Amino acid sequence: MRIVLVGPPGAGKGTQAAFLAKNLSIPHISTGDLFRANISQGTELGKQAKAFMDAGNLVPDEVTIGMAKDRMAQSDAENGFLLDGFPRNVSQAEALDVALKADDVKLDAVLDLEVPEDEVVKRIAGRRICRKDSSHVFHVTYSKPKTEGVCDVCGGELYQREDDSEDTVRKRLEVYHTQTEPIIDYYRTQGLVVTISALGKVDEVTKRAMDALKGDK
């Protein structure tokens, strides 16, 4: 299957993408991984992306699209892929359609993870990260440390990242609504959108997504 995964920040796209890709035996292709791989490998597109990023500018659509096309052309994506974080806007969605059409393939579904805005804010703004080891993550509601402000694993101080503040989260949601959400309507006109609730436990959401993709809604 060829799938695009969409949803607001905090919807659990990365987590669900990993599980869905494994269940469907297709590669999980994320924008972040594309950038890291191309930059670390020193590809021409990676050099272009790094130059823009180093200058504090957004990477142009054509560079991101070029990376995605190269990745989708690799042998492990021959029978499908799951795109996470791309396309981010309608112009990228249109460019993706052109690229797929050139290879005589098309998308099978656009999976829309739906989460109420207040829940998104609660999920992200409640995160607390360990200063000693950022892989130790807690949550003031869903995964409380035994001692407030102290990491259960190593005793490090827990803090809220600046990116996780409520004001920042709401600004990120505004960007999502303005730039990314319109691609849902774009794909809906093609009959590709499958919307599911992303509330509940991870395995519950994964099952809901798998059932929806198989048509068992």
Describe this structure in words.
Its main location: cytoplasm. Keywords: ATP-binding, Cytoplasm, Kinase, Nucleotide biosynthesis, Nucleotide-binding, Transferase. This is Adenylate kinase. GO terms for molecular function: AMP kinase activity; ATP binding. Residues 30-59 are annotated as: NMP. The chain has 217 residues and is α/β, with parallel strands linked by helices. The chain has a single domain (2-115, 173-213), classed as Rossmann fold (3-Layer(aba) Sandwich). Helices cover 47% and strands 15% of the residues. The protein has nine helices and eight strands. The protein has helices at 13-24, 31-41, 44-54, 61-72, 90-102, 117-125, 166-180, 182-188, 202-213, and strands spanning 2-6, 28-30, 81-84, 109-114, 127-130, 137-139, 158-159, 193-197. The protein has a five-stranded parallel beta sheet, sandwiched between helices. Strand 5 (127-130) and strand 6 (137-139) form a beta hairpin. Helix 1 (13-24) crosses helix 9 (202-213), helix 2 packs across helix 3 and helix 4 packs parallel to helix 5 (90-102). It is globular and about 55 Å long. The mean pLDDT is 93.
